[in-house]
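Interim report, section 4.2 (structural modelling).
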Amino acid sequence: MTTAPAPASARPRRRRVPAAPYLFILPYLLIFAVFWAWPILSSFLLSFRDSRLGEGAPLGTANWSRLLGDEFFRTALRNTLVILAVQVPLMLALATALAVALNSRLLRLRGLFRFAFFAPLVVGTVAYSAVFRLLFNSDFGMVNRTLTGLGLPAVDWLNQPLPAMSVIILALLWRWTGYNAIILLAGLQGIPEDVYEAAALDGASPWQQFWRITLPLLRPTLLFCLVLSIIGTLQLFTEPALITNSGPGNATMTLGTYLYQQGFRSFNFGYASAIAYTVAAIAAVFSAIQLRLFGRDT
Amino acid sequence: MKRFALLSLLALAPAAAAQSSTLSGTVTIWSWDVAAKALQSTVPGFNRKYPNVKVEVVDLGNQNVYDRGLAGCAAGGADLPDIYSIENNEAEVFWARFPNCFTDLNTLGADRLVRNFPAFKWTELTAGGKRFAMPWDSGPVVMFYRRDLYQQAGVNPASIRTWDDFIAAGRRVNTQFGGRVKMATIANGQDDEWFRMLANQNGCFYFDNAGQQVTVARPGCVTALNTIKRLYDANVVATGDWGGQITNVKAGRTASAMFGAWYEGTIRTNAPDQRGKWGVYLMPASRAGGPRASNLGGSALAIPASSRNKAAAYAFLEHALATAGGQATMLRSQGLVPSLLAATRDPYVAQPQPYWGNQRIWQTILGTLGDVPQARGTQYFQDARQIMIVTQADFLKGRYRTAQEALQDAARKISSATGLPVAR
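Predicted structure of the assembly:
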């Protein structure tokens, strides 16, 4: 198919038109360049500078070679991956169960429950971290009081590596399960009712309906939750910083708290930038893998 | 000679008077908590000398002062106060990263005051021949103890001269109280304060005094780490973080506590009901006759280069920090331990303190100031500290065969984190 050439008189006008929209978004582009693009680029350059030597330090790969041999970085990475492997699947399973329950027509006061499970997200992070510290206090915490009340041994929650990690994971579960459940609930409500009716007519049990209909149709929403949770976990900072202070030792140090420690406690911005870029790269790789594995035909 | 002195006095007098009346304007100070209150308590005295200078002490909290100082220096000195509070341990990070952010106090006359403070206090405040801050309070280490608990266990604090004596006393306390009361609480996995106090006592630290080498594997530090292991293995100490230590003090689960002398206020305000039950003695030595002094913590005051009122700011520094009256005022109001040597002769220091069983504790504490060995945090303090916290916890857990081996590993890690070589 061929199109007739535009009349000569229209051409110059068509060329002039595009300038106006760009002019309108120019303020945004300028702000984006100055406050987004430049810092991102600048921090990349910074990762090649030993910022501890002062302003005029030459470019080099000192930070990157330190990162390769840094035991603390490996500890932080390992801790982050442990949280990722334990907390994220646990949370998504719980959130799915919760979403299905909240979606049930048998449930009364649905609105109240939905709000109750979403509420943890509204609570200030500092406040909730302080509450968790108190709950898990070895001597006076409610958790140990309950344990000893039941005749079980008290646990030194915040001063032992494994219990400290469990507290972090529990805190994350408390805070984020409801949020994911609400997103999954929206996904559930997008599944047409007649699919279930047809399945019921064919004699499918509720259990079969869940595995054969709900889960497959919920996949895009689950994938969305998974990608967000993984990126969130890779940046995890608040809970280990405020509940356990990365301790005991480095038992709950995450990539986020190590980045903060290097950047704002040791003032080593060059090294902190190298860590930040590594975290971003890991997040990108994880997201790409997930989209490839689970993202087909969605 | 006498005439000469008189003449110089006559020459100086009008100059001083002129200075008092010409200085004017506002001086803002950033500080934190009790330290801010202590500075505030010196303002009336300052205003008697300099009535035209208005002093505004802003209590931002410790972390905020540090963070906003960092932001201000990174922004080329924007939005900084006229006087900036800085902890000695963290001071060198500022001098190293932002050497132009603060005024060289020598240009304002601080070089004349050098000998008025103990040498160890200046170590971290000078860099590249510049004197960036004036010593403020210090943390001479002492052992705080419960008179009643010691007495019940038949322990005489005067007989505890070495760590061996301390462990022996701990065994008696364990027997007396069936293990419910320990001699002290040490941080393990949260901090390495005990290691730093003991290392400093033995003339060792993470880095040498030139800040050029990693010295954490040297004999003094090995002795320090070994002592901690012996205390731990003998089961005479409990472990706990900052909050846990205070809890143990309040609940009477520990018979003593070792810290910088600023901990005096912490005990007194957290356990007011234990008035009269506490006392103080010098930290035990590593060997008979060895040094019984060390330092933990302490702060300084600096004048940002961007201050528009440097002369007035410096006048305040001199009044609050370099006069015995100023320092004694802060000691009296908030228990801030002076760095100024002359402050040890202030009458208040010789007074018995009711909370401490009428013991003249400030004489005991300040008497150690001159014996504290020098140590330097350097700009790598936080890196080294993080590594030592983990090394100590691993060593106590039995991950290393000897303290020497543990510290060599720590030295290697500190070296790779900082780029400084390990001392041979």
